[in-house]
Amino acid sequence: MPMAETACDPPLLDRCRELLYDSSPSYASHRTLNNGNDCGGECELPLIDLSCLSCDSAQDRRACVAAIARASSEWGFFQVVNHGISRELLWEMRREQRRLFGMAFQKKDSCCRLLDGSYRWGAPTATCAGQFSWSEAFHIPLSKINEEDDDDDETCNGDFSSLREVMKRLAGAISELAMELAGVLTENLGQPAGFLAQSCGKSSCFLRLNRYPPCPFSPEVFGLVPHTDSDFLTVLYQDEVGGLQLMKDSEWVAVRPNPDALIVNIGDLFQAWSNDVYKSVEHRVVANGEVERYSIAYFMCPSYGSIVGACGEPSVYRSFTFAEYRRQVQEDVRRTGQKVGLPRFLRRPKLS
């Protein structure tokens, strides 16, 4: 029996059906074009204990830095424990997140000034089912989270008076963690630890709250389509449902959830800056047919005018600003339904 949408769900079902019918003559043929079962098994991401970064042993700290750099080069992903962010704060944010997504769909786009314009669902530019994401999200700039409360602005109709305060505490804690990890990775390549802090202030970063409703077309429809992140560094807190997959050695592997760890991945800008030493790896979320999934992602981004150069010469990529990169990504997605990303900015483009 088809799964019924609730009042809080966006109209994913209707839009996905349209794309399924438009993109293939039959549902069976669609399954062969976009099969979520093409996964080579489950993996355990490199697990790094960050307490070693502040321990008294210089040898232990060097080993930790080497492990972070190696994972960033070989996997593009790793997970961290003893990261300094309390489980209580993460749970508190998850409670707020569940309540927020439990609002009626019609209210989500303009429920309050804090979240105004940050709500999105599905994929507006999708022209076939393979480009559609079965998910909804609030993509919120930290500059908005850190604004002073307006006495005349009742946060989310008065129902979420603690939302801004919890988001502000969490974003502040993850910002410090992201800066610490970015410092380790830049220092590993011979640059000052605070190099990226000059362009990646807290005001230019984003917090994204994700929800993946149960999907009747799972696993043929993605919760989030294959992509790389267009930032320097991403820090992810996910629940125990699972569904995150990444490309490793030319095959998709599923990431085993670890309730005690945060996941960190390299973004496009760090790959460009590091001259391909660190890898921005393609990843996706496979929708679940039975239960909903939640995650929270922090994106470490520079200001739009910041120039992304390389840490050494010869440079693989030409210099570009973050604004230029975002415009090109948006244009490619609008025209083709897919992100091209870094290949657009190679100093010597590869011949097709």
UniProtKB/TrEMBL annotation:
Listed SUPFAM superfamilies: Clavaminate synthase-like
Entry's Gene Ontology BP terms: gibberellin metabolic process
Pfam family name, one: DIOX_N
Enzyme Commission code: 1.14.11.13
Cofactor(s), names only, from the UniProt record: L-ascorbate
InterPro entries to which the protein is assigned, alphabetical: DIOX_N (IPR026992), IPNS-like_FE2OG_OXY (IPR044861), IPNS-like_sf (IPR027443), Iron_ascorbate_oxido_reductase (IPR050231), Oxoglu/Fe-dep_dioxygenase_dom (IPR005123)
Keywords: Dioxygenase, Iron, Metal-binding, Oxidoreductase
A GO MF label: metal ion binding
Fe2OG dioxygenase domain residues: 201-302
Keyword Metal-binding (UniProt): yes
Group of enzyme by EC: oxidoreductase
Catalysed conversion reaction: gibberellin A1 + 2-oxoglutarate + O2 = gibberellin A8 + succinate + CO2
The family this protein is said to belong to: Belongs to the iron/ascorbate-dependent oxidoreductase family. GA2OX subfamily.
Name of protein: gibberellin 2beta-dioxygenase
Lineage: Eukaryota, Viridiplantae, Streptophyta, Embryophyta, Tracheophyta
